[in-house]
Write a structure and sequence with these properties.
The structure holds 2 protein chains of 2 kinds. Chain A is mainly beta. In chain A, 0% of the residues lie in helices and 49% in strands. In chain A, the strands form 2 sheets. Chain A has a 4-stranded antiparallel sheet with strand order 3-2-5-6, with no helix packed on it. In chain A, a hairpin with a 2-residue loop joins strand 2 and strand 3. Chain A is globular. In chain B, helix 13 packs parallel to helix 15. Chain B contains 19 helices and 10 strands. In chain B, a hairpin with a 2-residue loop joins strand 2 and strand 3. Classes of the chains: A mainly beta, B alpha/beta.
């Protein structure tokens, strides 16, 4: 099994949730198994309310980056 | 002569009974109204540098249990210092995944911890359990129970384990301070999937894991087909479930999003299976009753469950989250394989092998093959995690897993050194049964200790933890189990 890399950018430190499970924190690259995930943050006040993310073909130097505002 | 005829009659009767369908007394109970199975206590701890040890114990009857005991004994013999206090490595074992014979030592360790570990020898491994089982099988009372009641052949093994070792202990009794997460694995006959005895899986069944006797899970994990009947459970999700079942988000995402089945088919299948267990929308199978066989049929080392524990976002061990948030930087994965691999005499015999040898191969070869594949997959994952931890100096997003070290340690009878050939031959020739001679028991335990102790990555762990006495040649140890961030010497 391989792993993929995801960077979730947000102005505050928040927990990052993949399909509802806590997997890491914002603004730091995280490891996840290859898959398609619904990414959300803990708390509220961010937009969009969720991101559908396909994690495949990333690398540590080129993570998938998504931005919440 | 009369005795021979009698034995034949008994055998014919046993086979006839074996062919019958029996409705068993299901050993599991439903969740109470509004309840769910509690997750394990925090396994990670406060010190990111403390080793987090995960072990997989393979099947192999009492040989596997004794080998596992040897590995745990070695972990108990090695200590490092943290904040001035000695910490035995065995106290850092946080996850144990197991199959069949490995489940005996895993469940015992989970139940009693390091202090009473060696009682496994006196209470189980030193006893002639096969003789007990055979005696019971011939007992007319047993035959009467088999034919007239819901008693099945797996119940004999369950009763033996309970009587000799577990004494009525239930999963709730595993909740002692410092206890590891125990993941015993069986095979679901309906789906061919790994069935792990975990709080999450029992949520899927709307069933109370805490109330389940440990002996049921160990026996299910060791229910070798044909010789033993399956262990059956009732799925209360197909009845009037009163529990409050959490955590279905991943199932919904896997089954409704368009790409999971293409990107990660195995995970998609696991979600589909969980949905069927939950009696969810468009369930692809009827899983009202679970009939469980030996976990070795699909993964004889329990490494699939160990892999899930390592990298699944939904694992109750929360290790992936701990890696990503920098809460753990030292993970030790120990995969213990008790595969015997004795010479079966086929290659040296010009005659066409008989039916028994063919059946042995038909059962044994696929098990060894799938075990090897699972091991390769785990090896690949561990190597990837090692690389991730070591290559983050200039990575974007300042990963908090920078500096993660993963020690990949396999324990296998093929790893003996040339001068240990005699012990190697001895342990490889221990048959798979529930009885060991005193010599075999001693040899299997010693094999576990030696094979772990001399593994280069275990030596590297001892070096990195500054365990005393230090290895004589640190440079050789570093070269034998290198990390990318090692300084070139």
């Amino acid at each position: 099994m391989s792993v993929e890399y995801l960077l979730v950018v947000y102005k505050q430190d928040r927990d990052v949730l993949a399909d509802g499970d806590r997997v890491g924190v914002t603004n730091h690259t995280i490891l996840l198994a290859p898959d398609e995930y619904i990414i959300t943050l803990s708390g509220d006040g961010y937009a969009p309310s969720s991101e559908d993310v396909v994690l495949a073909g990333t690398s540590i130097m080129r993570p998938k980056i998504i931005v919440f505002t | 002569m009369h005795r021979v005829i009698g034995l034949w009659l008994l055998a014919v009767l046993a086979l006839a009974l074996a062919a019958c369908d029996t409705v068993p007394d299901y050993p599991n109970r439903p969740l109470a109204t509004g309840a769910a199975n509690p997750p394990p206590a925090d396994l990670i701890g406060a010190d990111p540098g403390a080793p987090l040890i995960l072990i997989a114990f393979s099947g192999g009857g009492s040989r596997a249990a004794a080998l596992g005991l040897g590995v745990l004994n070695e972990l108990g013999a090695q200590s490092y210092r943290a904040t001035g206090q000695p910490v035995a490595l065995i106290d850092r074992v946080k996850v144990v995944s197991s199959v069949s014979g490995g489940s005996v030592v895993a469940a015992w360790f989970g139940l009693v911890g390091p202090a009473r570990l060696d009682e496994l020898k006196t209470d189980f491994l030193e006893r002639d359990n096969m003789k007990t089982l055979e005696w019971e099988a011939k007992d007319p009372l047993t035959l009467a129970r088999l034919s007239l009641s819901s008693y099945t052949r797996i119940d004999a093994l369950r009763d033996l384990l309970d009587r000799e070792l577990f004494h009525g202990a239930r999963f709730a009794d595993l909740r002692r301070p410092g206890a590891p997460l125990l993941v015993m694995n069986a095979t679901d006959m309906e789906s061919g999937e790994v069935f792990a005895f975990t709080p999450q899986r029992f949520d899927d069944l709307c069933s109370d894991l805490d109330q389940l006797p440990l002996s049921v899970a160990v026996a299910a994990s060791a229910a070798f087909p044909v010789a033993l009947s399956p262990m059956s459970l009732r799925n209360f999700s197909y009845e009037d479930c009163k529990g409050a079942i959490p955590g279905g988000g991943w199932i919904s995402a896997e089954l409704t999003l368009p790409l999971p089945r293409y990107i990660n088919l195995e995970e998609y299948k696991r979600a589909r299976y969980a949905n069927a267990l939950r009696n969810g929308k468009d369930a692809y199978r009827n899983e009202h009753y679970l009939h469980l066989l030996d976990g070795g049929l699909v993964d004889n080392q329990g490494v699939q469950s160990l892999t899930e524990v390592l990298v699944s976002p939904r694992s109750p061990a929360r290790i992936l989250e701990a890696i990503n948030s920098g809460r753990t930087r030292r993970i030790v994965v120990i995969a213990v394989n008790a595969r015997a691999d004795a010479d079966n005499g086929v290659g040296g015999n010009p005659a066409v092998p008989g039916l028994l040898k063919v059946v042995n191969t038909v059962i044994g070869a696929p098990i060894d093959s799938t075990t090897a594949r699972s091991n390769a997959s785990l090896q690949n994952l561990v190597d990837t995690l090692k690389a991730a931890g070591a290559s983050t100096v200039r990575a974007p997003g300042q990963p908090l897993f920078a500096g993660l070290r993963v020690y990949n340690i396999s324990v296998d009878f093929d790893q003996f050194l040339p001068e240990q050939h005699q012990l190697q031959i001895a342990v490889k020739n221990i048959g798979t049964s529930w009885s060991l001679s005193p010599t075999q028991l001693q040899e299997a335990i010693e094999a576990g200790r030696i094979l772990l102790r001399q593994h280069p990555c275990f030596q590297r762990l001892l070096l990195d933890l500054n365990v005393q006495p230090a290895p004589a040649e640190p440079a050789i140890v570093r070269n034998s189990c290198p990390f990318k961030d090692d300084k070139i010497s």
